[in-house]
Design a protein that fits this description.
The chain is an alpha+beta fold. Helix content is 29%, strand content 16%. The protein is elongated and about 45 Å long. Pfam families: DUF7387.
Amino acid sequence: MARADSGNSDSPDREIRLVKNPDGQWTARDLRVGVTAQGKSRDVALDNLDAVIEAVEGDGGRSPTDEEIRDLGVDPEVARSQSDELPDVFQ
């Protein structure tokens, strides 16, 4: 079940727009946060929107570990460098 708004009275006003696209997909946009997500149904679009908002506003993301970076075939020190050259895996 989608939970586009927690109903918490302390949360800012939310306005979410749902649009059914010509291809049958649904697009959900949170106007306050300014993010958009899509899904095959309304519920999936709203669930995806919740995940995007959590990643943007909450603790939904984290930096990759050195091991995860190495698993991509990238030296973590190279990945953290300030040079303009992208590691091979990103080119």
